[in-house]
Each structure stands twice: as structure tokens, then as C-alpha cells.
Amino acid sequence: MPKIRCSIFFSVFFLVISLSSSTLFAQQLGYSSNKNALGSQAMVVSPHPLASEVGLAILKAGGNAIDATIAVQFAQAVVYPRAGNIGGGGFMVIRLNNGETATIDYREKAPRKAHRNMYLDQAGNIVPGLSTKGHLAAGVPGTVDGLIQAHEKYGKLPFQQLIQPAIELAENGYPVSQTEAARLNRFQDDFKAVNDDPNPFIKENWKEGDILKQTLLAQTLTRIQQKGRAGFYKGKVAKAIVKEMKEGNGIISRRDLAKYRAQWRAAVTGQYKDYTVISMPPPSSGGVALLQLLKMVEDYPIEDWGFHDPRTIHLMVEAERRAYADRSQHLGDMDFYPVPIDSLLSKEYVEGRMANFSPKKASLSSDILAGAFQGQIKESFETTHSSVVDKDGNAVSLTTTLNSNFGCKVWVDEAGFFLNNEMDDFSSKPGVPNQFGLVGAEANAIQPGKRMLSSMTPTIIEKDGELFMVIGAPGGSTIITAVFQVFLNVAAFGMDLEAAVNASRFHHQWLPDRILIEKNGIKEELKEKLKALGHQMYEVNYMAVIKAIHRLQDGSLQGVGDRRNPDDDAKGY
Ligand code: DON
Description:
alpha+beta; Serum Albumin, Chain A, Domain 1; seven-stranded antiparallel sheet; globular; binds 6-diazenyl-5-OXO-L-norleucine
């Protein structure tokens, strides 16, 4: 309950710790993560071994990829509480083995009482922390309705069976990994700042192997199991959310919850050479931006130039600069704003965007589209993704999020889960960056009932009409460029999927005008060449965390979790 205080969002220290020694006690934990799996029939890649295990069991019990994905998302809500969720939202992209595609958008919505200037003070300036921490930062959660609708349309096994493993994990508890323990320790002050009552997450000195039991969450999941959407959006759970809101000056109402509906949308699709890319349309910018990027580089001989050749990076960065400029201006929730998708993806438009590309010189973002940047990007890695393929070749790519680690940090006292802080993905004020440094305008302004723009890019790729890759990632604004690069690492540079995922990446998002690079990821000599072209570089520990499946030429499946998250896990059979 309410005591809103701001604290430092990101600490390199904990990140380094969390990367260093994760599987030291794997045997005591009873699980360990496997980064690279081969399967002749089916595959699950998720951010946690226990979630992958649940997915695999559902697949082996005859569930299809949609069933397994639903079970994985519920399991993640328990074993990956910093991002796996029922208090947030996400996007699911589906490709059935007959080529049929669908997407479901269960992104959070702005509550009815939300308004354009709700995060500004009287002088019209952003109030720091208001859109990221505490009750007012939460959008109306979409996850439960999204999963239920996905099941109604495509599920094979009973819904009750899919949610049961999550209930058991919550009720019996599970041993936290070293990475999770570090996260829990890192956010103690934040938990206490916005929650007055005790909850299972508030505890000093979490250690690897400590058992996290979530009894209230088990009860909430059981309600959903018994009553479907009404078990979350009505009755006791809805009442608990609204009570929580009232205690913390939040604005989500009973009506907001009762009216929430996930939305089926046609996938955004397009060609890159022999590949068909199937991805998420707005309110995610992911699919449109990914396709723009691929089209912008398609006519250049990057295969000949090679991976991390200065010409390749320069070209890809210049494409990224232009695609993110478009993102900030043109993309938002299509139910509220006419996003010109066809124009943005047309050949003429994309060629026009690259007309002023010079192989010899970096552009200036200020010349690409007007805009000014203030503030810094803050690294944060809290969203999560799962990729699943079943034995019949159906595929699902799902990205889900609370936005920041543990969302707005508010844990619903009587229902046992964290709420998102997705409202920060709106443009609170034109031209002022959000926590990912992204700027926006009218297309992504706050309006009641509107969905905030996302960068999540759950994607499925076909080659010559056959399933080729299932891919996606957490990582805020860096998700799009990570999917772009990992796909090209395989498709253009001939890398094996594990090498492709683990290869160092770079990222440009128009503003600020600089290339983010991963620490020790780019050789000094290459950096010098990029600097000579006029690029500025800024080092971060790491960016998006890919989870992908590659269907190999013999039809078998390679699943890869990213070295960047020690708990990422691939399981197949
Ligand atoms: O929807 C978005 O683009 C963000 N809310 C995603 C946040 C994210 O990926 C956090 N980091 N991993």
C-alpha cells in the first residue's frame, strides 16, 4: 500500500552479480538451465527451467503449442515474478502448421480515468517516477483474458489442466535461482516503498535455494481455473485490485476490469528475400519496425560484407535510426490513431527513407526527423518471452511483461501478484523520453481505454512457406534491433542459432543519437572505423535477451536461450 518514493532504478552491480555464478548450486535447486537443446519433435524456450518443464509436460501430454504457451505463461507468473505475470499484458503470435496465422493483443489499457497530462505537474513537467512506480503507473491488466481467448480459439487440452502446474508451483513454493535472489534483494526498498503490508517478496537477504511460496497467488489462479475470466476481472480478485487502487491513489476501477477484452489482430507480415516475417502489429511497434529494417537493408550485399563488418553495422544502424524515428512519430494504438502501416512498409516509402543514406558518413538524427532528446536510457531487463513449437509444427511466439522489474512494485494485497507499470510506455509528454529513452507524440498520447505503444516483437519466420524460426525477447526498445540482428545472423551470415543469439549486438533508436554496444562486444579497431564515419558509441552491459527456435533443414528443432539471462532454458524432445 501507498508510500511512493523514488529510488535508483538500475544498478550495474547487481547485474554483474546476477550474471556471474548462477548455476553454482544447480543440484540443490532441483533444476538447472540448458541453453541449447535439440528436439526431433517439439521445443520450448522460456526464461526459467521450471516454466520450460511445464511447457514440455503439456506438449508431451498431447497439448499443442498454444496450450503449452498458456501453461508456460501461467508458470512464469509464479517462477519468474519480475516479468511473468497475471498483472500485466503481452502479445501472442501464432502460426499453425497449415500456414494460418493469428495474433492476440492482450496489452494493458489506460484506465477510464486516465488522461493525457496525468503524469505532469502544474508547470507541465513530468513528475519523476509517477508513471513508473506505485499504483498510478498501472494499466488495466490483459494477460488473463488474452490467455483465455487464445485457449478458446486454439486450445486442445482443458484450460484447467494448463493452469494446474502454476497453482502447484505457487502453493508448494519453489527454490529461487541465484539470479532471482539477486533481483529480489535489489528491489527490497522499492517493495517497501509502495507496499505497507508484509508479502512473500519482502524479506532480507534472499539466497539461492530459498523457497518462495505464493499462497494467495495460488488461490487467485484457482479462481481463474474455476471461473475463467470472471475469476480475475470480477468478484474477489477484481475487488482486491480496486481496494489496492483506492489505498494508493490508483485509478483502475471495477468497470475498467469488467470491460477489459484482449483483441485478435491480423499479423503484420512481409517478405525479406525468401523469408516471410509474421509479427505483431500495433499497439506494438515491433512488427512494423522489424519489417522496415529488413526492407531497408535487403538490397545491400551484407552477406558479402559479413557480420560486424563496419559497412554492415553502419548500414544497419542507419536503418535503425530511420525506423525508430518513424516509430516515435507514427506508431500507436490503431484503435485510436490511424497508423499508416501499409505506407510505412511500402517499397517506395522505405526506399525514400534510405535515399539520403551515405555509406561514407553517419546521418544526424536531427536531420532525419525533428526532435530533441533529454535524459538517459536506463537499462532494465524485465519482460519475458517464450517460443514454442509442437510435434505437428504449430508455433507460438509470446512476449509478456510488467514493464519494469516487478512492474510498479505494487503487490495486490489480497490477490497475491504484482501490477504492471506499463503506463510509462505512453508518451507522457511529446518529445520527453520514457524509461527506455523513447520519445513519442500524438500517436502514443494517453487516452482512456487506449493501449500504450510497445516494442515487443514476438515473431515467426517462414522460409519458402515452411516454418523457419520462432523468435522474440525482453529488452524494451532494444527488442526490435535484437530480433533483426539474430535473424540476420542466421539468414544472412550463416550462423548456427546458438552463435547467432550469443553474438554481441548493437542498437540505435534515433534518439539519443548514439549506438549502444555491449561491453567487450565490438573490437577496438571496428569502433575506430565507426567513429571515423561519425558514429558515437555508448557501452551497456547487455541488451535484449533472445529466446528462439530454429527449424533445421532436416526438420528437427534447435532451441536456444540467451547467455544474457542465466535462467533462460530450452527443452525439447
Ligand atoms: O512493451 C514494451 O516495449 C516494454 N514495456 C517492454 C519492457 C521490457 O522489455 C523490459 N525489459 N526487458
